Amino acid sequence: MDSASKRPARYLDGPGDAKKARSGFADNVLLQALAEAGCQGLDGSRPTKVEDPRVLRRALMHYLRNNTEGISTFFQGLHEAFQDQEVLRCALLPMNISGEGLPETGDSLIRLLLNISAIQTPVAYFLLKQLPHLQNVMEVDSTDALPQLVLGSLRWLDEVVRPHELTETLLEVMPKCYRPVQQGILELLPELVVEQDCEAVIAALVRMTEKHSALLVPALEAISNLSSQEAGQAQVTELVLQRFQAAETADVPALLRFLLQHVDSQNASQVVELLRSMPSFALSKQQAPGQEQTEEEDVEEAAIEAMRTGLQCSHLAADTVFSQIRSLTDPEQHVSIDLWLLLLLVGLGAKRSEAVHKLLRKKFTEGHVDNTWLDKAVISHQGAVQGLFPGLLGLAGQLVQAGQAGPQAAGTHLYTLLFTCCSPADTAAQHRQEVLAGLHGHLGSGQAGEVSTALHVLLALTHSHAALLLDHADFVSALLDCLDNLTQAQLHQVFEVVSELVVFSSSDSSESQAEQNRQRLGKQLEGLLHKQMQSEEVQSQRVGIIGTIKLVERLAHPSPTPTAHPAALDQRSKEAEQLLARSFDAKQHKPAMFALLCDELTDAVTSGRLAEPIRAWLSLAATEELEMFLDDCSHDLPAVQCKGSESVAGGSWMNMNGIAGQVMLPLLKILASPDQLHRQSLAYLCAVTRLALTLEFHTLGNLDGLSAILGCPLHMPHIDLMQSEAVLGLSTEQQSLVCTSLLLAINWLRELLNAWARHVQPTECIGGAEVQQNLLVRLQNLSQLEALLAHVIALLPSSPCLQVLAGPHTPAQAQTKNQKKGRAKEAKKSKGAPSEESSEPAEDQENVGDNAAVSVGPHRAPAGHSHLPLSRLPEVQGQLRPLDARVLRLLGQVQATALPQAALAPAAFLLEQLQVQLVEALTRARRPAFLNSAASQDASTGAHQTPQQIWGGLQSTLPALPTLLTMCNARQSSAAHTEGQEGVSQVGKGEEVVVACVEGASQDPTPDLLITGHPIVRAALASTPAAARVMQHGLHCIQQLTAAEWLKQPEHRVLLYAFLRAFGKDATSSQDSHQSPPVSACAMKSHEAIQGCLQACHYFRALSKRALGPLDQEVSLLHIQANLISIAETIPGTSSTREDLCQAKEAISRAAEEALQQGSESQPQESSSPLQVQGADPPTRSGGGWKGQQGVIGDLVHLWVAWSSQPCQTMLRLLQGALAQVPSQPVTGKKAHEPVAPYPGLSGSSVHIWYKALSQELLLQWATHAAGVVAMHKGRQGPLQEEAVDSALEQLRQCGKVFSSLLLLNKAHLKRMQMHAQALRFGSKVIQHCLRTLPFWEAWYSAHPNQVEPFSKAIKDVQSGTRILYVICAEGKANKNITIANLVVGSKHVLEEFRVGVTAVMLAAKQHILQGNLKHKDLTGQEVSSQVPFTQILSDDDEDDNEQQGRRQEAGSDTE
Known about the structure:
The protein is mainly alpha-helical.
């Protein structure tokens, strides 16, 4: 063979030289061996061909086995042949297989040679050495390039013979190669490197990346796949942290993935901090919706996926991310990536998802983050939004479902961002559909908060992106199909959305899809409104009216769209007027619906949503409607004819205009009119009046033009017809006429008061002196009318049939189950004594005149008729128009009256209305979110008011309340003295009724302004019972307000300061002068606020009469003082103020104990109750377990124990003293009510009430103790001190003694099952609190085993109580007591946990534990039947069988 044929092909000169070289391979050992084995075609012209690769491999292995010389010759031939790159390519390409039953192609010849162990290493070495030369031939990054084929053949080998040498060769040739080849080598390394070489390989790769920074990412991927030691990985992580800031943008995702996957406890915080300060997340720029995604956003999306992978692989990284973000409290500290990291954590499992959502709700609630954070994270990061859109959508839904204002506002904003910032264009429409689908889910949830928030989002989208929303008009159309369960406010939102889209006009052509959707939506809205307006159901009519008004508002808007033409605006305004005109025509055939329309229009006018032309048109129409009701008062008032020949005499009532008055309201005349339409028009009298007055004020700025309406008289039935005997003698038609006229008169006066109160600023007085005097007189009239209506209804044998329903602007009339049950019970009771109602009418009338109660609450029976159905009044009162909270400002005019006693009845009336509204508002605020469904809310607006709205109406009258309460308290004291001198029946009798007169008024009122001629109306204004009612309702309102949690919140501190200034030092100093200082709304310092609370406590303490006062009033005073102390404790203060608070607590505790010790000499004055039936004994607090005062006993025990300096000692003294003296055996009759000294309310019949109250207090003490121990265990109170541990042990000892003493009472009262059930119910909860403390004691005594003796002694008291619980469980099951048996399973489970927990504590302290089985004994100590030996049971059974057999034999012999 010549020298030319031995040179590599690349050194040959001409094109024919390569062929000559290949022709010189005839004597090549490699080719000969391959040919003999059946391999053909290794000449560079075509791929190699073999019949069966397995046969080829076996032949080569046989040729090379134990043939060292043959191996050397074979490798020499391989080296010579593969110098030709074409031959090498043929050897690297897959072989063609010609054998039958085999695939057409297989592995390459090179890979077959590499899988032969004898030649693997030299072949691989040869190939790797050729890499630097092979990369010069063609593009090395192509898949068929020789370098890529060589590296590919080295992957997934069956066995690596010498991995160390192969690794060194790879590292040696890698610096000489181009980047694509280097990346391929880095990808190959993890498959070849063994564990012993990992550290050296990592070091080599680190050195290489220092020179070639572009290889950092592939080197990191290779290192990540190596099974190296932690020290080597930590070194690489440190390197990445150093180079992260200078890395290329495209490398950021891989760097993030590596850092998060290899984080450890040493660098976790540093990695997360670096992550949060990553500069690449500031690259994206805001772009218009629908634009294509940029390269930077692609990198950002890849970074999101990299972080997701990293957090999934490292729980430590996830925990560190969560803890760092949770520690941030300043909105400026939060960056965009924080939101993405939290959303990535949501995908790591249910627990992390719940924790993240809870954290975000807390942050938005407490103001740690705001909507600006969301803007930065969404608007400027479209790539991240694309990768995390499902998570963002889920977060928005979670925030909306939170039920709190802050999170819901954030959820609303996030939904809006996701809808408006959708990109790129290919996914924008889909993302918007997903947003709308999420909102649709909230709309169908049934939760009022969710529904309102979702509608708020739609409303915001409608105002800003109506064109985009029209592209999804089908979703908006679906809103109109689910209106049944929406509240009135939600209906307003729905129709505002639809009306906005219907009126919207874009620049698109009429053939565009958006315009077609708009027209189709308009036709659907028109058809819906027509259908709802024609319906006979009130709710459907309300829907139609709201939709009509919303459409009118939008049509008449000055500029519906920026491009609207003036001619189009005029046309829309005319359409709005025509729509209203058609709606006004409904009054002829649907008066109730017209009343709904007037109320809705009034709200629209008040909110300023109606345009000026529409308001002008409405003003004329409403004034005309109102004038149709008024009549000339100059002529006589003859009797009116009812159906048939019956007539009803009438008269002019409550004329405040005098002789100069020209108009009156002829209620009686209209009610008796033969024209049915005229009679039915009274259904919208109050609604039209409200609308006309509102329009008058918004047009002229005052109500002077309609001031005559305030004082105009009313044509009413004669007062003599409402006497007791006269009412019973009237026919059904006449009775209905009387009741309906009274109801309409009440609603008329209520609307007049609302009108003059609504249109005055909160800081101003209601009108001048004349107006204030007229309003006070109208309040007196209103008190008389309501008392008179209650009196008449109570006299009727059945509920009256009202001819005209009151307006729709009334509270709901739904009846609860309790009301229905009470009605059935009262009706059944009334059947048994029908003659009592009519047998003594004169006595009833006289009794009413002497002692009539002025207040007719919805839960009270009228005076003198306590045996009549209580459910009639709520039925009628449910149709009354609500009083606005701003009417409460009339309380401030009490001091301005010339005779203050004349204003007591109006003040009592206002305070009673305030109490009803306040209780309802606070109850609704405390109601769980899942109960605030749309279906459960009242459909009528105005009936529901928030506590803040009520407080706003009351705030300006706060200075008058202390003076008013002081005056009423003094009058109440004088009445109590009179009662002691003359008896109960003489209180209030003979008092002169005077008309309210305001100082500064030009004319003094005359007695003709009031209703006269009836004892009920005279008693309604009596000052003595009115003073009692002022005290009762006023104190109850103050108690509810001071107990409200929202008053303690910082944002409502201004209300608290106003209250403290009214009832603080200024109140106590102005009691004698009756002059109220102005209340300032400025802030108070902490010590001033605490002193204000203490001074207010002193004021209310001064109102107490101790044993002489009514029981409910004394309890209210104590609760108010306790609430004020609780408020003061939330305000930071000094040690001196804390001492003052402790003294105030002690005073409350002593007062509660004294109240419990009051005996029969203290008779509560049921001031707000109906009149006492003549001859009935007044209720007392002596013995009898204080019948009907169970709740009061619990309140007083709570105040006595909870506010004492040593609650446990107080409970222990009571348990071992008075409660131990209660007779153990239940008795009946008078003996059951014999009191135990010194507590008249403690007896055998009430011992279970005391037991329950003490159990609740003990549970609170255990909860406080457990919370403190858990805080010590978690290190929340700083370094642990032995003094704190000793204090916790002492508290444990005291609570354990009380627990043991409380349960010992059950052994004395064996047959009181109520006490046993309470023992299980509260005892198991006490043990649960004890279980919370055991982990701390176990850890403490593991470190201090020699100090366990105090704990052991304290826990023995608890164990003595648990034994009794075991016995109660066993005895309850044996006696088959259902109440106790239902509690046994849970109680025994808790007791078993307690046994195991205490055992763990004692074992941790290295103490010996003796455990054994308890015998089943009853509370008397006797073993139960389950403990009798089995043999004795068998013998007893045998004896029974023998006795029965003997009896049968005797019976058989007798038969024979």
